[in-house]
Amino acid sequence: MSILSPIQFTKGLRRVDIRGDRRQGCRAGGATNPFSSDDILLIMSDGRTALNSTTDGLIHITIPVGMLQCNCSIIGDPDTREALVIDPGDEVTRILDLIGRHKLIVKVIVSTHAHIDHVGGLSKLHQYTGAPVLMHRDDLPLYQAMDEQAAFLGVHPPDLTEVDQLLKEGDVLRWGRFEAQVIHTPGHTQGSVSLYLPQDAGKVTAARTITSVIDETGEKIDIADLLKKTVDPDGIRETEPVPDESELILPRAPQLFSGDTLFAGSIGRTDLWGGSMEQIMNSLRSKLMHLPDETIVHPGHGPVTTIGNERQLNPFLQPE
């Protein structure tokens, strides 16, 4: 299958500047909507597993939360400290602790879909951060039916919050130096979305590094050697290195936050409210499988994978 560029399935991208049995768990085997996505605001471990990556210019923390271990992701810009939080399903105190440790400012909260294990912490996280809550319009009825979902699992329903903005195919969310493209991927639920961070999102140009200077005698001295010497023979203090004006951030592999649409070796289940096997297979084959093979996939549950691995090994995605 040929690989298409992201623009081919997000034609007409709309930019949004933000203010401020593995097959049968979460995987495979309405109300009037007063909101409009055209109203989007022009704004913008505690011993348990939390995957934390601060390499290649990106703060990315994944923390499994709640009874069903939903992967909540925190994506931050190490320069601006602005962050986006995806699927705060539960255990908001842990999420807030990690946000605080990294001194991050949450600019937006995104739900990939409105199942209870992915939205249970929305209200509390919104209350503590003030960040707007975003989800797709087609999952609003599911979000408003939280009592029914809670009864299905035999748990107490979580508090609900207002959905500040509605997502749709082609939206682009921006925070710090990063951007995420919204891909509508119905099938697990009617309003399921995936977030795609292109390869060059957050890439900056490095300032030219100065490696040597000329001393008063006209001799070239390496900065590294100079910093080993004292300022004067009296030994007042040793010189301290001056931080670089900026750092080189190498291109990252593209990142996909797939919610419960695509997993490592499986796909989202379709036997719950609003599920459709036909729709999820169309979302996978016509959208997600058109992403580059090197795209790193962060599912809503379980380990990371890549588009290339799933194209080759996922039993649901083999040629018919």
Mean of residue pLDDT values: 76
User: What Rg, in angstroms, do the CA atoms define?
Assistant: 23 Å
Helix-strand pattern: EEEEEHEHHEHHEEEEEEHEEEHEEH
The percent range for strand residues is 15-25%
The end-to-end span amounts to 13 Å
Oligomer: single chain
Domain count: the total is 1
What characteristic shape results from the CA principal axes?
globular
Main sheet properties: 7 strands, mixed
User: CATH topology, anyone?
Assistant: Metallo-beta-lactamase, Chain A
Name the structural class. alpha/beta
The CATH architecture can be given as 4-Layer Sandwich
Strand adjacency order, main sheet: 1-9-10-11-14-17-18
Report on the architecture of this protein.
The protein has 320 residues and is an alpha/beta fold. It has a single domain, classed as Metallo-beta-lactamase, Chain A (4-Layer Sandwich), CATH 3.60.15.10. The chain is built from eight helices and 18 strands. It has helices spanning 92-101, 116-119, 122-129, 140-144, 146-153, 223-226, 277-286, 307-313; strands at residues 14-17, 51-53, 59-65, 70-76, 82-86, 105-110, 133-136, 165-167, 171-175, 178-184, 193-197, 212-214, 220-222, 255-259, 262-263, 266-267, 296-299, 305-306. The chain is globular, with a radius of gyration of 23 Å. Mean pLDDT is 76; it is low at 1-25, 30-49, 203-216 and 226-250.
